[in-house]
Amino acid sequence: xxxxxxxxxxxxxxxxxxxxxxxxxxxxxxxxxxxxxxxxxxxxxxxxxxxxxxxxxxxxxx
Amino acid sequence: xxxxxxxxxxxxxxxxxxxxxxxxxxxxxxxxxxxxxxxxxxxxxxxxxxxxxxxxxxxxxxxxxxxxxxxxxxxxxxxxxxxxxxxxxxxxxxxxxxxxxxxxxxxxxxxxxxxxxxxxxxxxxxxxxxxxxxxxxxxxxxxxxxxxxxxxxxxxxxxxxxxxxxxxx
Lengths: 62, 169
Known about the structure:
- The structure holds 2 protein chains of 2 kinds.
- By secondary structure, chain A is mainly α.
- Chain A is built from 2 helices and no strands.
- The longest helix of chain A has 25 residues, at 5-29.
- The termini of chain A are far apart.
- By secondary structure, chain B is α+β, with helices and mostly antiparallel strands.
- Chain B contains 8 helices and 7 strands; from the N terminus they run αβαβαβββαββαααα.
- In chain B, strand 4 and strand 5 (78-84) form a beta hairpin.
- In chain B, the strands form 2 sheets. Chain B has a 5-stranded mixed sheet.
- Chains A and B meet through helix 1 and helix 2 of A and helix 1 and helix 2 of B.
């Protein structure tokens, strides 16, 4: 069966995506522990502020 | 500052002989070897001989003004969970063979990657399985096998779980 072009594009996309993801992951894994801790503390702070936030039912328009 | 604050508090516990030693485990240990990821708490394995010493640790921290909430002790805005070594040989081995590190000049210890894999094989939650796969790429397989063999009588399931993961990847 002939491959459809979108399928080819999709395969290419995921190939590039995985390569980029792996490269970023390796780069981050090689950072110093102090830098990693700083990122983790930022993530904890962000999580705390998101979890404590409230959803406003009011429209943003006055 | 909170992580550093905990490390300083742990070093103080060690010098005050409230604990024999300690090692960072859990999410913070995983992030030492892999990319950093969000984790709610800091898991610390502590070298203690019995439950009495564990109670003494909690009493000491309470007396020092730290809040105790469920399984956590809040130190410098960080929920810390203490896992005592007397609950199993694997825990004791993980602390004794932990890797010495420095965080911004402060000495500390983190469990070795091989012991970390063994500990994750014990907890074996879905997220642990993903981490095991990633850690295996960096770990020494012979060293993992030696650890699993050493605690075979106590933790017979580890070998089977490792085999299942290796077959799946």
